[in-house]
From TrEMBL:
This protein's record includes keyword Nuclease: no
Classification via NCBIfam families: PRK10877.1
Name assigned to this protein: Thiol:disulfide interchange protein
Statement: the UniProt record of this protein carries the keyword Signal: yes
Domain Disulphide bond isomerase DsbC/G N-terminal: residue ranges: 22-86
Domain spans labelled Thioredoxin-like fold: 112-235
Biological role stated in the UniProt entry: Required for disulfide bond formation in some periplasmic proteins. Acts by transferring its disulfide bond to other proteins and is reduced in the process.
Organism: Lacimicrobium alkaliphilum
Compartment(s): Periplasm
Length: 240
């Protein structure tokens, strides 16, 4: 009886391993097809909540692809049985949190003395609403909101905004350089080893289309400026 059970268990394990290996090979073919067809770099492919569709995390966001590799979709998937839960946003939230952990050592932080919440903001020194948000940084901090900045040069990595952000991140005092740059003051051009390009690429991957873009502690993202009073209400609501 024991031998029979062991044989069944081993057979089951081998079947699972065989299926996994086969799936990985199919996924490798799908990764290559996506890259060859539209030039996207694919980080991962895994099953999606929708039967018959796989979700592909690429350098330009989350896509869905049919299991046979014929159809590619880009859009949001909502779950009607879960109150219109945004399944695409749920998947992206996980990726955002993983990215925030990866970039934790390269943020520019304005820490609240009595911290209740922490948000991460994709920012650009040339963005009007980014400047407005930063002009109220003391108000955010006073409400217990720590603000951590990641760089997102809206014009891309060859823009003046990119050069400005590099200078901020390479300054001796990045916090002061951020404040000066967003106040419209000239700051010295600086260069150093930095992750501004990596921040920008990460932002594109997780759905940032403009600045400011605010990532909350649960990985959800709010596009656009939020006044201190509104942001603290949002944070209180999702944490209540």
């Amino acid at each position: 009886m024991i031998r029979t059970f062991s044989f069944i268990a081993i057979s089951g394990l081998l079947a699972v391993l065989s299926f996994t290996a086969q799936a990985q090979q199919e996924y490798a073919d799908l990764r290559a097809k996506i890259t060859d067809s539209i030039g996207l770099s694919v980080d991962s492919i895994k099953p999606s909540p929708v039967p018959g569709l796989l979700q592909a995390m690429t350098n330009r966001g989350l896509f869905y692809i049919s299991e046979d590799g014929t159809y590619l979709l880009h859009g949001k998937v909502f779950n009607l049985d879960k109150g219109l839960q945004n399944e695409t946003e749920e998947a992206l939230s996980v990726v955002r949190l993983q990215g925030l952990e990866r970039f934790s050592d390269s943020v520019i932080e304005f820490k609240a003395q009595n911290e209740k919440y922490e948000v991460t903001v994709f920012t650009d020194t040339t963005c009007g609403y980014c400047r407005k948000l930063h002009s109220q940084i003391d108000s955010y901090n006073a409400k217990g909101i720590t603000v951590r900045y990641l760089a997102f040069p809206r014009g891309g990595v060859s823009s003046d905004g990119f050069k400005s952000l590099v200078s901020v991140w390479c300054a001796e005092n990045p916090q002061q350089a951020m404040t000066d740059a967003k106040a419209g003051q000239d700051i010295s051009n600086k260069s150093c080893k930095n992750q501004v390009s990596a921040h920008y690429n990460f932002g594109q991957q997780v759905g940032v289309q403009g600045t400011p873009a605010i990532i909350l502690g649960n990985g959800n993202m709010i596009p656009g400026y939020q006044p201190p009073a509104e942001l603290i209400k949002i944070l209180d609501d999702i944490n209540s």
